[in-house]
Design brief:
Blueprint lengths: L1 H27 L3 H4 L1 H10 L10 H12 L6 H10 L2 H26 L2 E2 L5 E2 L2 H9 L2 H35 L3 H17 L1 H30 L4 H12 L10 H16 L6 H5 L7 H30 L10 H13 L2 H33 L3 H20 L3 H24 L1 H16 L45
Antiparallel strand pairs: 1-2
Helix pairs in contact: 1-6, 1-12, 1-18, 3-14, 4-10, 4-14, 4-16, 5-12, 5-15, 6-11, 6-12, 6-14, 7-8, 8-9, 8-16, 8-17, 8-18, 9-16, 9-17, 10-14, 10-16, 14-15, 15-16, 16-17
Length: 482
């Protein structure tokens, strides 16, 4: 029953939602991800600045990459190629391309509607912009529950199983031993809260990402003569034009979109939870940074994994191994047995930071549901650690099918909310673009120009020194009427 429901939701509904609404956002925003593409690099450079008392934009980016760059970039790509052929990679690109617009909007809205908690830290995400942007707390609670179940619980168990199984295959380490080590290390990180999680991500995410990209590019460079032909095969297979993989066109589309969403998470409503914690001058700047993270995740990291697999000669139609083994064997075929060890270590780092990210999404959702209850937070931490230990020794295939269903429901609720708040996002985007056009190097958000929006004025104070570039924006219709 779970498989039937999952096939319908992720094979049909998810494709329409992600590609359809992502395309709509792209066109209606006048291709914001293309217009601001080179600006992304300037905003990324500015994000390196520290923020007094709050997390910086760069730290928020590292947190989001901690989640985006995970098992999906290795195992997920392997699964997509195994079941959908080379053409699946093309549809992963398409998903990311339109997903950049969705991520831009959801993360900008998360910044706009963020709140300060009792400890003075920012919190936000889909539940917050649904409540304060649409005035529907009940729907925000549904979103929070879906996030808590999907990321806080299900995905953590799955990630734990992926890394323990991989390390057992590479080093022969007992899964229980690895699980206990994971629980101890993660428990120490959880206790430190968002700041410790951000500090660990700050250290590990750039290292794991750059080393993985460096090794895969090296392997690809060794076979550079075959890259143009393989890229052509990817494109032709996506449309059923390659004679070898032509029969996989349906699977290529489904697996490309499904695994693409799992890898980059654009539109799911997960990344906005960490995008909201940053202290920035304007909500749009965080939207720009997060759109860049989708590009980096799919067009760089997932593409590196795909080319690594497709150029190795290991993969062929009818290959039945799992995604992790396929990636391990592909690297080993080119560089030797140390390739299997490298993939296992890389996966361990990817999974460790992903679990930290998943944990925070769950905690943020729990705080939205029950407030600042210390007992609830401690109970949640204990439950997550028990689930991680359980996932380390038990194959949770049924949980994976369930998580795919709740992930699709997440996308459904979040994307509908984004469509309803789209005009609000365009208002703040016009404000940002107008300031840049007027020569303002770093646009500043002035909440007094948007009196109709339910904003936390402590998070976004009025800026008396700011001269509105487009005062018409302040008289726009409220979000609930738009």
């Amino acid at each position: 029953m779970l498989e039937v429901i999952n096939d319908f939701l992720s094979g049909k509904v998810l494709i329409v939602l992600i590609v359809g609404l992502g395309g709509y956002f792209t066109i209606r925003s006048r291709f914001v991800q293309f217009r601001h593409f080179f600006h992304m690099f300037a905003v990324f450079r500015d994000s390196l600045r520290n923020s007094t008392g709050q997390l910086s934009s760069f730290q928020a980016l590292m947190l989001s990459l901690a989640g985006r760059v995970g098992a999906g970039n290795i195992a997920g790509v392997g699964i997509a190629v195994t079941l959908g052929g080379p053409g699946a990679v093309f549809w992963m690109w398409v998903t990311a391309l339109v997903g950049m617009a969705s991520s831009f909007i959801e993360c900008s809205l998360a910044q706009l509607y963020k709140r300060k908690d009792s400890e003075g830290q920012f919190r936000g995400g889909p539940a917050y912009y649904i409540q304060h942007g649409l005035g529907k707390r009940w729907l925000g609670m549904v979103m929070a529950v879906l996030l808590l179940v999907t990321f806080g619980f299900a995905f953590n168990g799955l990630q734990s199983h992926a890394v323990t199984d991989s390390l057992k295959g590479a080093f022969g380490i007992d899964t229980m031993t690895t699980g206990i080590c994971l629980v101890v290390l993660l428990g120490l990180a959880f206790i430190g809260g968002i700041k410790r999680i951000a500090a660990i991500s700050d250290l590990l995410v750039p290292v794991k990402t750059l080393v993985y990209i460096g090794v895969t590019i090296y392997v690809i460079a060794l076979q550079i003569d075959h890259v143009p032909a393989m890229l052509a095969t990817i494109v032709k297979s996506a449309f059923g034009l390659d004679p070898v993989f032509g029969g996989l066109i349906g699977s290529a589309i489904v697996m490309g979109v499904k695994r693409g969403v799992f890898a980059n998470e654009a539109g799911l409503g997960s990344a906005p939870n960490v995008a909201a914690v940053a202290q920035v001058e304007h909500p749009i700047s965080q939207g720009v940074v997060q759109a860049f993270s989708v590009f980096l995740d799919t067009f760089v990291i997932c593409t590196c994994t795909a080319l690594l697999i497709l150029l190795s000669g290991i993969y062929d139609v009818g290959y039945s191994g799992n995604g992790i083994v396929l990636a391990q064997n592909s690297l080993a075929a080119v560089v030797g047995d140390w390739g299997r060890i490298f993939i296992s270590v890389a996966l361990a780092l990817f999974v460790f930071t992903s679990i930290l990210y998943n944990y925070y999404l769950g905690e943020n959702s729990l705080r939205f549901l029950v407030g600042e209850s210390k007992k609830a937070i401690v109970g949640y931490r204990i439950f997550v650690l028990v689930l991680i230990l359980w996932g380390a020794v038990v194959d949770l295939n049924t949980v994976f099918a369930f998580a795919d269903i709740t992930m699709t429901l997440l996308a459904f609720v979040n994307l509908i909310a984004l469509a309803m708040l789209f005009k609000v996002a365009m208002r703040i985007l016009r404000d940002y673009d107008a300031q840049r056009k007027a020569g303002v190097k770093t646009p500043v958000f002035d909440s007094s120009q948007f009196p109709d929006l339910d904003l936390d004025r402590n998070a976004w104070p009025a800026n008396p020194s700011h001269t509105p570039v487009n005062p018409v924006e302040a008289t726009a219709k409220p979000a609930t009427q738009a």
